[in-house]
Amino acid sequence: MERGGSLSPPVGCPPLTAPPAAFSQHTANMAESETLETVTEHERILQEIESTDTACVGPTLRSVYDDQPNAHKRFMEKLDARIRNHDREIEKMCNFHHQGFVDAITELLKVRADAEKLMGQVTDTNRRLQDAGREVTAQTEEVIRCRIQQRNMATTVEKLQLCIPVLEMYSKLKEQLESKRYYAALKTMEQLENIYIPRVSQYRFCQIMAETLPKLREEIKEISMSDLKDFLESIRKHSDKIGETAMRQAQQHRTFISAVQKQASLGCAKPLYSLNGRTTLQHNGLVGEDAADEEEGDDEVLTAQDLVDFSPVYRCLHIYTVLGDRETFENYYRKQRKKQARLVLQPQSNMHETVEGYRKYFNQIVGFFVVEDHILHATQGLVTRAFTDELWNMALSKIIAVLRTHSSYCNDPDLVLELKNLIVIFADTLQGYGFSVNRLFDLLFEIRDQYNETLLKKWALVFREIFEEDNYSPIPVETEEEYKSVISRFPFHDAEIEKQPFPKKLPMSQSVPQIYIQVKEFIYASLKFSESLHRSSTEIDDMLRKSTNLLLTRTLSGCLQNLIKKPHIGLTELVQIIINTTHLEQACKYLEDFITNITNVSPETVHTSRLYGLSTFKDARHAAEGEIYTKLNQKIDEFIQLADYEWNMGESDGRASGYLMDLINFLRSTFQVFTHLPNNNNDHAAMSGKVAQTACMSACKHLATSLMQMLLDTELKQISMGAIQQFNLDVIQCELFASSEPVPGFQGDTLQLAFIDLRQLLDLFMVWDWSTYLADYGQPTSKYLRVNPSTALALLEKVNRGMKDTSKKNNIFSQFRKNDRDKQKLIETVVKQLRSLVNGMSQHS
């Protein structure tokens, strides 16, 4: 510490100056009087100032001024004393070391010259050394750089030897992807991941490559799936052609089998070819065999592989298998094929209009299942037999439903027959691939019934046309050739007619041989459907007989019934219809023989059906007979409507009414027609006589009933006795007609009994024999046994009113005449008695 300058007073304090001597003396005197405590405090402060940093002296000095008022002065004195002590110690030390310091400075001055000289030498040496080592340094750095490059090159070569195979494999992968060799690309990727990339995984390009491989896998999956979709679309487009080829091969094979069976049945000794394996196809279900014709055996056979490239599905299957996602692929493939199956099974709305619509539908279905069968055998597990069976069962149900619906719209038997042939080929084709087709043959039996229905409708039109074109007159034959032509078409044999000279007439009309021929044509048409149904001859025979029975009992019978009911068919035509049905009935046994010759089934077989033609034609004859009776009655009604009686006439004309004579003449000429009924044997004679007798009796009864209704008509209020007489003359003519035997065969007066009710009623009024009637009423021997009291009462009231009206017109005073009054009383008495009889009958009933 420098003397007098190391300590400065605090800010705001006057500077410290050396105290004067008087003051120092005073201070010394005062110091002696200081207490021990003050001295100690100042000592402490001084020690603190000496040991404390100058920046922190302020608080210490402040404590000096904080004591007694004059404490700082005493402190300053203490401080000065301390300073003086230090100065003395410094001086002593400097005096002690001064000579050594001087000596050291002298030595340093000597050394400085040597050091400067040495410094120059070292600097020169360093310069020369730097100049000499600069070239060496440059060469050394070049050597180091070359050594580093050499080491780097060796390292690079070593690493490149590890990377080049990776890059080569990756390049190979790219080439495989570009050439669409996806399965090989997946194998390459597997080698990259497992072998090559792990060796150089520390490099960035390998990391990028490793990150790219999963993306490439997904890309391959997408590409292969796209190829699969294209494949599915391709087989959808080519299913029609595949199915057409398969069905054609099946048809050719069926033709061959038929030829083999035919040769076997003929006992041909020529060696026949035999087929092994599937019925129409080889083990893969795609190569057909055409053994039906040797010339066609060398033709190129198109297979599914020829029409569709199956490599996409194989490739996609392998890819998904390698990627461990085979199940996803299988599920997708099966799902898509199910969708395609539903599309294939969906028919066109107008499929039933042409056979081509059905053929295209079947071709698509066959093509679909041919592809599935190929996939089943060419791949392991992509589709299973259970899956294809499930798909086929679903398709079969849909096919049957579609065929039922669309075949029901078909009214053309030829189209139905072609449909049947298509179904048979369709079933045989798929059966060759192991699919169950029993339900299809069951469906054919349903379609057979529909085919028979269409045949029946077609033949109904044929029968109607034959009936419309028939002239309903016996067939005239002018020469032997014409006669043979007729009997060649219809089995007619009559010894009496054969003996007759030409020209002559056969009893039936032209429609009979035509109907017979058409029935045989129907049998042929029905037989066509039964072919290839894998049924026995007995079953075919039964089907033919049943369908023929339907033709006879429903179609032909219905046509005959409609023909008989037509208004333009007269009595002559009805008679000819009866003759025709008789001959058709006789021809039924020849139809049975015709069926037997076709099917080779003996008619004595237990389950053989019989033709119902006998009952059919009998029913037709009965209907014709009934129509004869009806038309006769209608004609009688027409004549009755011409009757114009003058019910108030005074006397009769003395002759029968003109309408009635015309009616009787008509009946006479009509009954002569019945002589043309067949009577070439006793049965026919009895039959014809019965028809004529029944018609005659029916006509007479209807005439009598109509005349009775005319008398009892409620609109007719009064009748004169002259009108009764005229009516009696008409009834007499009817009785004369009945007694003239218009139809032979009646016994006694059987025919006259038709008019017995009218005769007794008219006799009662003509004789006016009321007493006898009333007296004998109810007696079996009564003369007027057939006269009902109600009938007599109704007619008597009309006669009574007529008599009253006549009397009034003749004489106003006639009521006063005795005879008239007596007659009036008699009538009133008879009326009362008749009413009592009528009332008694009503109470009794």
Would you write up a description of this structure?
Among the domains are: 180 residues, 5 helical Cullin repeat like (Up-down Bundle), CATH 1.20.1310; 143 residues, Exocyst complex subunit Sec15 C-terminal domain, N-terminal subdomain (Tetracycline Repressor, domain 2, Orthogonal Bundle), CATH 1.10.357; 201 residues, Methane Monooxygenase Hydroxylase, Chain G, domain 1, CATH 1.20.58.670. The chain is elongated and about 225 Å long. A two-stranded antiparallel ribbon has the order 1-2. Helices cover 73% and strands 1% of the residues. 28% of the residues are buried. It has 845 residues and is mostly helical. Helix 9 packs antiparallel against helix 10 and helix 14 packs parallel to helix 18. The protein has 28 helices and 2 strands.
Q: Return the average pLDDT rounded to an integer.
A: 79
Helix content: over 70%
CATH class of the domain at 642-842: Mainly Alpha
User: SSE order in H/E notation?
Assistant: HHHHHHHHHHHHHHEHHEHHHHHHHHHHHH
Strand order of the largest sheet: 1-2
Which radius of gyration do the C-alpha atoms yield?
A: 71 Å
Shape: elongated
How many alpha or pi helices? 28
Protein name: Exocyst complex component
Pfam families: EXOC6_Sec15_N, Sec15_C
Keywords: Exocytosis, Transport
InterPro entries: EXOC6/Sec15, EXOC6/Sec15_C, EXOC6/Sec15_C_dom1, EXOC6_Sec15_N, EXOC6PINT-1/Sec15/Tip20_C_dom2
